[in-house]
Amino acid sequence: MSDHAPAIPYAAEVRRKALHLGALVLPAGMLVLGRPTAALVLAPLALLAVALDWSRVRFEPVRHLLHTAFAGMMRPEEVPPLGAPVVLNGATWMCVASAVVAAVFPPGVAAASMAMLMVGDGAAAVVGRRWGRTTWPDGRKSVEGTLAFAVTAFAIGLGVVAWPGSGLSVGACAAGAVVGALVEMAPIPLNDNVRVPLLSGLAMWAVQAAGQAL
To answer: What is the rounded distance in angstroms from the CA atom of residue 136 to the CA atom of residue 213?
Structure first.
C-alpha cells in the first residue's frame, strides 16, 4: 500500500492496524508455549483462516457475516465478488506467517519477527500516511514510514530480548528491525505479512547463529 495513495480511509487504516496490535497475543503465545506447542496451536488457526477466506467467496451467508464485520477495514483487492478466485486477506496471511515462523525459527526469533511486523507495519502505515513527505524512488512508501517501522520494531523487539529465556540478542533484534523495515518498503510480489516476518526472522536467526559460532 502506498503512503500517498490510500486504498482505504485513514480511520479505517488505524482500525486495521489496531487489530495488528491485538494480534500480539500470537507472538506472546510463542514465548509462553514454546516451539512445539505454539506450532500445533497456530497451524489449525492458519487453516481455519484460509478456510474462512475460501468460504466467503463461495457461500453468501459466510460472506455477509465476515464482510459486515470487517469489510470496512479490507482493501479493495481483498474483497472479491462471490464466486471469484479465492483471495487471502491480510489477517489470514498473518495467521499463516505465524504458523510458519513458529515451526521454523526458535521461539525468541519467531516471536520477535511477528511482533515487529504487527507493531512496525502499523507504525509505518499511520506515520507514513499522516506525516510522510519523502517517498522512496518507486513512490509507493515514504521514508518517514520506513523509519517509523524500524524504530518501533526495534523497541518491541527489545521487549522480546528482555523476556526470560528468549535467547534473543540486542544485535539480532536490531538486524531484524532494519531488515523488516527494508523488506516492508521494497516492492516484493509477496504479501508483506509473510515476507516481513520470514526475512526479518531469517536475519535474526543468522545473527544469532553467527554470534554463537564466534
So the answer is: 37
